[in-house]
UniProtKB/TrEMBL annotation:
Signal peptide: none annotated. The chain holds residues 328 to 605 of 605 of the full protein. This is Diguanylate cyclase. It comes from the Bacteria. Residues 23-276 form the EAL domain. It comes from Neobacillus cucumis.
Length: 278
């Protein structure tokens, strides 16, 4: 095998071959993941820092392969984007998250917002807004209870992306900027885009008490956002000290392991007991 390999693939090292075949296996597995019902969503609670109540959930995808076990999104989302599979996966995620939120409302829980991660490949699709509209119709979820989490790369993309954002705004869907502050993009887009919320990236939250510069960045982002009429959610809150600092700085919402790890659907109803007086 080695001999043959040498002749046929002289530009590839064994390590490269291994990496390529691992990627191919992963891609084949991912293609079957939806039909095999291997994808699932978990939901991370978001709390209002003023009231302490649950106000939203972020849907996060999980892939539980029948042989390989749990594969974290960091290991397959990039591949899904590269291969275009993110279009199918993303639609499945959106539908499932909206249906889950509607089911909670039908059970009589107070309505909350469901945040869904959108990759730029999805956003570039000609009929992305139409797909979202159809999912809302099919699930019966009021658009005001859906939030799309966009990255700064989407915004920079094109005039088309900007007009799609306005379409969503008109529909009443909330828009947030995920991982805010990590994208090297100019801030001027904040002036023109119909954004509701900035999500402060975990890398800033983590260092609030480690590097005073991160604390300054966090409080400056909050002040700037408020001056622009935007809300702020801090991601990756892991300690009570971080939570208190954010509260003091008038950050609107928080999300992180200190509050709750992402949880399966069946545990959501318990979250109300923990975070609100429902
Ligand atoms: P993200 O959107 O920034 O999601 C937050 C990630 O941080 C999640 O990891 C979450 O479990 C984790 N996290 C939350 N709180 C804490 C904390 O206090 N400490 C630490 N150390 N981590 C925390 P996860 O679920 O592994 O997702 C990773 C990334 O994968 C997401 O980052 C998002 O970019 C992507 N992703 C996940 N689900 C989807 C999806 O349905 N569609 C798309 N396009 N991307 C997704
Ligand atoms: Ca996110
Ligand atoms: Ca994020
Ligand atoms: Ca992230």
């Amino acid at each position: 095998v080695k001999e043959q390999g040498k002749n046929n693939f002289e530009f590839y090292t064994p390590e490269m071959n291994e990496a390529i075949s691992k990627k191919m296996k992963l891609e084949i597995g991912l293609r079957k993941a939806i039909e095999n019902h291997e994808l699932a969503l978990v939901y991370q609670p978001q709390i209002d820092l003023e009231t302490g109540k649950l106000f939203g959930l972020e849907a996060l995808v999980r892939w539980d392969h029948h042989e390989w076990g749990m594969i974290p999104p960091d290991e397959f989302i990039a591949l899904a984007e590269e291969t275009g599979l993110i279009l199918l996966i993303g639609e499945w995620v959106l539908y499932s998250a909206c249906a889950q939120n509607k089911a909670l409302q039908k059970e009589g829980y107070p309505p909350i917002r469901m945040a869904v991660n959108i990759s730029s490949r999805q956003f570039q699709q000609p009929n992305f807004a139409g797909m979202v509209r159809k999912v809302l119709e099919d699930t019966g979820l009021d658009p005001m209870y859906l939030e799309l989490e966009l990255t700064e790369s989407i915004i920079q993309d094109s005039q088309y992306a900007i007009s799609t954002m306005h379409t969503f705004k008109k529909m009443g869907i909330h828009l947030s900027i995920d991982d805010f502050g990590t994208g090297y993009s100019s801030l001027s887009y904040l002036k023109i885009l119909p954004i509701d919320t900035l999500k402060i990236d975990r890398s800033f939250t983590r260092n609030i008490f480690i590097d005073p510069k991160d604390a300054s960045l966090v409080s400056t982002i909050i002040t700037m956002a408020h001056n622009l009429g935007l809300k702020v959610i801090a991601e990756g809150v892991e300690t009570t000290e971080q939570l208190h600092f954010l509260k003091q700085q008038k950050c609107n919402g928080a999300q992180g392991y200190y509050i709750s790890k992402p949880i399966p659907a069946k545990e959501i109803t318990e979250a109300w007991g923990r975070f609100s007086c429902f």
